[in-house]
Each structure stands twice: as structure tokens, then as C-alpha cells.
Write a structure and sequence with these properties.
With about 70 residues, the chain is mainly alpha-helical. It has a domain at about 1-30. The chain is about 25% helix and about 0% strand. The longest helix has 15 residues, at about 1-15.
Length: about 70
């Protein structure tokens, strides 16, 4: 769990404190990792239909959920 937390905290701080908007792609993923689609080219690059959690190799986010809420929820 520490590695998963480190992944998202690093992306969050990088986006919101350093202003690196590219890191948002690591935060805004499909809510349930099992709903993500792994679609990779032979060289490992992502195809357009690839929706698996960025930064996680196939099946390593199995069973995880990432929820986004607004203040007060």
C-alpha cells in the first residue's frame, strides 16, 4: 500500500504544487481499475483505447478503486 500511496501523492504534489499538469493523467483514471482496458502496441506504447491506470503495469492495480470527491462529501 505504501507504493500505491507514494504513486498518487507524488502525482498530486507534482500537479498541484509544482504545476506539472501532465501528472494529472496519473490521477484521473477510471474509478475501478478492473474497468480499465490494457491495450498496448508490441513496443509497449499505449494504443488510443488503453484506459488502464497510468503508471501501473497490467494487473498490478487489480481490485483497487480511486474515488474523487469534493470538499464536504
Amino acid at each position: 500500500m505504501n507504493n500505491i500511496t507514494q504513486h498518487f501523492v507524488t502525482a498530486f504534489f507534482g500537479e498541484y504544487l509544482k504545476g506539472d499538469s501532465e501528472l494529472a493523467t496519473y490521477l484521473y483514471v477510471v474509478e475501478n481499475s478492473g474497468d480499465g482496458v490494457v491495450a498496448l502496441n508490441d513496443d509497449g506504447t499505449e494504443k488510443p483505447e488503453h484506459t488502464y491506470w497510468k503508471g501501473f503495469t497490467p494487473r498490478t492495480a487489480k481490485g483497487l478503486t480511486l474515488e474523487h470527491t469534493t470538499k464536504g462529501e
